[in-house]
């Protein structure tokens, strides 16, 4: 049995030599960034870029302070505190596995009701960037209109209790109020979630919420803070027993290891009001606009994930690579992308839509990445409007086919019905699952009920071409099942 070395600062010298460990003195690091939502993706992506800079002797005053606002964040904080905020990253490549320990995070704010510790930490002058990964559906916007939802109970609470908010956005506003009063000045809000124009979305949420309690502060935030758009890309599975066993195979006792693919991409609009690390020296790209990069990634990778994960889970396939081994699912993905999505995606420097699809096909097929269909299919009520419906809208506007995308929408309805093809139950897998499940059940006999959810479909539900295709596929799925319908689509 391999002897496990507890992951801490004082044991880094004992870590097996096959694992890279920080070469910089972590005691010399000082904070510059608060990151809210410190899950696996952040630690495999943004924190890694900063770690790379520190390995070059750079950015040592930009270390990360982790933060969270939900009850489950307390447990994550405890695990990371116990190992001095170190993380083992394991790269899963079909040819080899490798591991490194990263050390760019140096603290984690205590998670308390009212978020006072978080507010106080963001108020300090050393914090110049507040970054977030809080999921696509976490920005309190109406999915149909993109407008701020002031009626959400969380927003109503934070507007009425600005000094003891329950959300990250309320805490950011409270911190900015303190910074304005103290003369500390603004910070940059850096959204790292999969949203088109994510910096603008973060700004809209903050300014709209601030207006509910302090219009002058809202104006100050809008004038002085900056919110760069960014596109992030790396496939990072959840951590479970397999990942814990894998880190143990390297001789390390890490309670929160992270596995990831070898591919990473980060494109950032260079718009920082208080300075920034030189992430480009670690491989990131600064660009005057990231819109085309975002569209390529959201429509092809994230949209592709939706297409195969729901099809796969309905057929009882557990992993994304398993979906790619299923001939019909793979063909469904590629045909839909080539015919209905790629025509409305622009090329970016050094990458065409077709070459990006080839890259995605290879990345999805990596058997070492044990990414579950259930994880990827989660939160369709945010991801379908974000990743699929924009492609439908563009294709309809340009007179292009939408048959595969309409089938995807019918599969989403089928998925929310909550039963796989073998009769097993799909456990709730969306923040709005109860409502979605109810509508899906009512749509078995009348599929138009599903399209009447205007919060997701908006006006495209009234488009005759899309409506007819959706109804046809919904009826076929009910009568023939997923496998048969995929074959019908591929041979039509």
Explain what this protein looks like in three dimensions.
- This protein starts with a strand and ends with a helix.
- The longest helix is centred in the middle third of the chain and has 24 residues, at 291-314.
- The chain is globular, with a radius of gyration of 23 Å.
- Helix 6 crosses helix 8, helix 10 (291-314) runs parallel beside helix 13 and helix 12 (327-341) crosses helix 21 (482-490).
- It folds into 2 domains: 5-287, Rossmann fold, CATH 3.40.50.720; 291-490, N-(1-d-carboxylethyl)-l-norvaline Dehydrogenase, domain 2 (Orthogonal Bundle), CATH 1.10.1040.10.
- The strands form 4 sheets. Strands 6-3-2-7-8 form a 5-stranded parallel sheet, with helices on both faces. Strands 5-4-11 form a 3-stranded mixed sheet, with helices on both faces.
- The chain has 21 helices and 13 strands.
- The chain has 492 residues and is of the alpha/beta class.
Concise account of the structure shown:
Residues 32-280 form the Mannitol dehydrogenase N-terminal domain. By secondary structure, this protein is an alpha/beta fold.
Any key phrases for this structure?
492 residues; alpha/beta; Rossmann fold; N-(1-d-carboxylethyl)-l-norvaline Dehydrogenase, domain 2; five-stranded parallel β-sheet; three-stranded mixed β-sheet; 21 helices; 13 strands; 47% helix; Mannitol 2-dehydrogenase
CATH topology of the largest domain: Rossmann fold
Largest sheet: 5 strands, parallel
Give the C-alpha Rg: 23 Å
| Assigned CATH superfamily of the largest domain | NAD(P)-binding Rossmann-like Domain
What do the pLDDT scores average to? 96
* Number of separate domains: 2
Domain Mannitol dehydrogenase C-terminal: 290-470
Organism: Cohaesibacter marisflavi
GO molecular function: oxidoreductase activity, acting on the CH-OH group of donors, NAD or NADP as acceptor
Domain Mannitol dehydrogenase N-terminal: 32-280
